[in-house]
């Protein structure tokens, strides 16, 4: 599920006082740097480079990957068969996790490389920062961590550091979400199934019809998979089957990005002009059917900071008001979900709201609804972003800040070339290396 959730805006540095480590406030963000922003490098084979950070008193490599994109920004899958990636050009993406960054260190403490680059990542609100160092060091150590997330197309399964997902064959909706602990052990299922309810009403001449569409109504073809050390990217072509009356169905291409603790789907959806012309009403609802949650599972959002027991028979009347996020928290795990819709939709009267109720079998469900979709305009391609973040602890008020920050407060990134090696100008070097430098 994911467009790049971290921006690469260059900003001037602030003061050099003590700051919080980035991991403390943005533990889920990827850092995505367009490779065209990197300084001149002696070669562009990512296998020749290491991304170093400080861990205590040791300099260690962290996972990164380079994902190929073409000149129009589309991901190219035939060049990405696995691993860190192939030789890159200016259109590609260097990706690593914000949580893996470390403190700033003296350039002289790095391996000799005149092309070494300091990558500084900062939270725009708190000023928390982390640094990583891209160094040409072909014989340097490899990161010890296994891949953070892997999509297995044969089994329809995502195996990530913090969760597992199951997908039915040929479908792009998951049927099971399990939260895992650090060593990969599985808990009971937290979500049993992703569910969609789409209710359009069409009118043509004297005929009116209202099909009931579900997640099963989508025809999905997966035509690209990229598994790397940091993330897995899955590209799917998806169309909505509206039957023989409307042979030109709404269709689009979706990319889902799987990371260690999150997954996101930025989608581009085009609605044909004929469909909008015939459309009289439209309601969309996307929910997650919760598993056997027990009596200690609660729903939270900005208006319900104390939470609501999901076993409560009647949800509050104000629940469907617009919400940036909601959280489901229980013994089987905790996740936060966000849905970002285009600002133009709001101007056209499209409303987003939260959903929490029981399904036909009596099980609690949570998710989002979109109303007044007849306000959409023809001829446009609309971008949406749905994401789920799995927390590694029970929910505490304020945890949502790091989740909302991923989509509304992109990380700021600055690149600085360093002169490291025999040709470098003399510099003040700490008595021992590595050594933090703030």
Would you mind describing this structure in some detail?
The protein has 438 residues and is mainly β. The chain folds into two domains: 22-141 and 410-417, no CATH class; 192-403, Beta-galactosidase, Chain A, domain 5. It is 5% helix and 42% strand. Strands 8, 9, 10, 11, 12, 13, 14, 19, 24 and 25 form a ten-stranded antiparallel beta sheet that branches. It is globular, with a radius of gyration of 23 Å.
Q: How are the elements arranged and paired?
A:
Elements: H1 22-25, E1 30-34, E2 49-55, E3 58-61, E4 65-67, E5 93-97, E6 117-122, E7 129-136, E8 149-152, E9 157-160, E10 163-166, E11 176-180, E12 186-204, E13 207-209, E14 213-214, E15 218-227, E16 232-240, E17 251-258, E18 262-270, H2 273-278, E19 279-290, E20 298-301, E21 304-309, E22 325-330, E23 333-340, H3 343-347, E24 351-358, E25 364-371, E26 381-391, H4 400-408, E27 412-417
Antiparallel strand pairs: 1-5, 2-3, 2-7, 4-5, 6-7, 6-27, 8-9, 9-10, 10-11, 11-12, 12-13, 12-14, 12-19, 15-16, 16-17, 17-18, 18-26, 19-25, 20-21, 20-22, 22-23, 23-26, 24-25
Please name the CATH topology of the largest domain. Beta-galactosidase, Chain A, domain 5
Name of the CATH class of the largest domain: Mainly Beta
What class would the helix/strand composition place it in? mainly beta
Number of strands: 27
Weakly predicted, low-confidence segments: 1-16, 423-431
What's the CATH architecture of the largest domain?
A: Distorted Sandwich
Mean pLDDT: 83
What share of residues are in beta strands? 35-45%
Largest β-sheet summary: 10 strands, antiparallel
Shape by Cα distribution: globular
The tally of structural domains comes to 2
DSSP helical segment count: 4
Report the radius of gyration as a whole number of Å: 23 Å
The N- to C-terminal Cα distance equals 36 Å
Helix-residue proportion: under 10%
């Amino acid at each position: 599920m994911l467009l790049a959730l971290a921006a690469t805006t260059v900003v001037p540095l602030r003061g050099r006082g003590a700051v919080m480590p980035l991991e403390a406030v943005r533990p889920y963000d990827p850092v995505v740097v367009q490779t065209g922003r990197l300084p001149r490098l002696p070669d562009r084979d990512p296998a020749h480079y290491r991304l170093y950070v400080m861990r205590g008193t040791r300099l260690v490599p962290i996972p990164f990957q380079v994902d190929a994109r073409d000149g129009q920004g589309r991901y190219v899958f035939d060049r990405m068969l696995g691993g860190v990636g192939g030789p890159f050009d200016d259109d590609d993406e260097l990706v690593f996790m914000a949580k893996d960054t470390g403190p700033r260190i003296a350039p002289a403490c790095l391996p000799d490389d005149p092309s070494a680059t300091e990558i500084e990542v900062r939270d725009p609100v708190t000023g928390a920062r982390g640094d990583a160092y891209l160094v040409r060091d072909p014989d340097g150590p490899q990161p010890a961590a296994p891949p953070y997330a892997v999509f297995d197309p044969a089994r329809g399964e995502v195996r990530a550091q913090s969760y597992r997902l199951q997908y039915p064959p040929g479908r792009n909706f998951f049927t099971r979400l399990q939260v895992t602990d650090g060593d990969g052990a599985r808990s009971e299922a937290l979500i049993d199934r992703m569910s969609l309810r789409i209710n359009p009403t069409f009118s043509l001449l004297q005929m009116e019809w209202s099909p009931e569409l579900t997640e099963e109504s989508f025809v999905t073809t997966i035509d690209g998979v990229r598994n790397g050390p940091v993330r897995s990217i899955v590209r799917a072509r998806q169309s909505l089957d509206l039957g023989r009356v409307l042979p030109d169905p709404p269709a689009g291409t979706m990319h889902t990005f799987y990371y260690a603790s999150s997954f996101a789907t930025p989608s581009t959806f085009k609605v044909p002009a004929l469909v909008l012309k015939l459309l009289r009403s439209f309601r969309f609802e996307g929910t997650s059917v919760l598993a056997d949650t027990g009596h200690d599972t609660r729903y939270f959002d900005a208006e319900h900071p104390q939470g609501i027991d999901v076993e409560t028979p009647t949800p509050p009347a104000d629940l469907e008001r617009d919400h940036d996020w909601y959280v489901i928290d229980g013994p089987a795990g905790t996740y936060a979900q966000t849905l970002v819709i285009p600002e133009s939709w709001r101007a056209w009267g499209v409303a987003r709201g939260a959903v929490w109720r029981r399904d036909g079998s009596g099980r609690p469900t949570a998710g989002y609804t979109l109303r007044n979709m007849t306000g959409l305009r023809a001829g446009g391609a609309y971008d949406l972003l749905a994401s789920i973040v799995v927390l590694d602890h029970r929910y505490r008020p304020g945890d949502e800040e790091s989740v909302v920050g991923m989509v509304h407060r992109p990380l700021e990134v600055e690149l600085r070339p360093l002169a490291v090696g025999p040709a470098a100008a003399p510099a003040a070097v700490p008595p021992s290396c590595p050594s933090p430098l703030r």
